[in-house]
Each structure stands twice: as structure tokens, then as C-alpha cells.
Amino acid sequence: MPLPSIVDIARTDLYTQKSELEEKYAIPQVDHILRLRDMVTWCIANPDAKDRQFVDEIMQRYGLSKVTAYADLKIVKSLLPNLSEATRDFHRWRYNEMILETYQMAKKRKDTKTMEKAATSYAKYNRIDVEDETAVPYHMIVVQPFFPTTDPRVVGINPVPNIDERIKKLTKELGASNPDTLNIEYEEADMNFEEIFDEKPQE
């Protein structure tokens, strides 16, 4: 099975936590994803930036060659149109980053009250106390085959013996006692059924 490309990984896990990325991918791929995430965030903060500014920024931040910088620029540009769909993922990631940063700052100041609030907010937002939902295995659902039939036994109804004869007998008996039921007025349908149901191929 071929390994996923960095573009495919970025499209699915751009804002996945670093620890989870390290469990799924090799370290070079994780570093690349984190770099792309950083530069996507930079692009969001600098929407009017030119390509040259992007290249200069990423080369300065990560010491990349110009070729690699332009390669990352191409990937980031392919990711930006998808950000409208992944906006909520971005804000979730950003919120977690802010909470963790607040926690670390409070820890340095030994502000246990703020630490507790940050930890509670983090746990509540990420629903840590809720058990993981079991995914429904839709791919294992088999569509049942259905076939048309006149046999009532398929729905649990026993067939009536000589049903056609009984229908004819009842029709004759009811028609004799209630002749009006056989003389119902109706209108001829204004349709040419021969044309509608003509099975001959049209030339």
C-alpha cells in the first residue's frame, strides 16, 4: 500500500495534535506538517502577502533552500481553498493552543486558580470525560436483494386456495344482487395507448 503524500496528510491532519501526528507518521513528515501549519497560519494572518514574501519568510524561519520554499508555497496554496471547510478545525486547534499557553503562563506564576480554570476549559472543550463514540460500520451493511413476486407467503400470509375461482364466484354473486356495481359510469381516457405502449423501435 503506497504511503500517503504530504499533501494528503496535510489535508486530513493539518491541525492534529503533534503527539497524535508522531503516532501516525514518520518524524520528517511530522516536521513538514508542522511547518506547513505554521505557514498556513501566517498566510491567514497576512492575506495580502505576495509569493516572494512567503518564500522569504519560510526561508528565514526554517533555513530552507529556495526550491524547497517554493515547493511548500505550492502546497500551502493548495490547502488555502480548503480552509473555508476546515475553519472550525483551525479555530479548535487555535483555541487549544491558547488554553495550553494560558496554562503554561499560569504555571510559571504558580497561579493554581488560573491553571485549574484552563485545565477545566481544556477538558470540557475536548470532551475528555465523554467516551469515544463507536463508529457505525456503514461499509459492512449489505443491501438486501428484493424481487417482485405474487406469492403472499413472503410476507407471512398463507395463500387462499383457488383464489381466482373464488373471485369469479363472488363477482358473479355480488353482480347479481347489486347490478349497479357493474354499471359504473366512466370516461374514456383521451390518450392514444397504441402510441404510448408501442414497443416497435422508431425509425
Automatic annotation (TrEMBL):
This is Uncharacterized protein. It comes from Xylanibacter ruminicola. The lineage of its organism: Bacteria, Pseudomonadati, Bacteroidota, Bacteroidia, Bacteroidales.
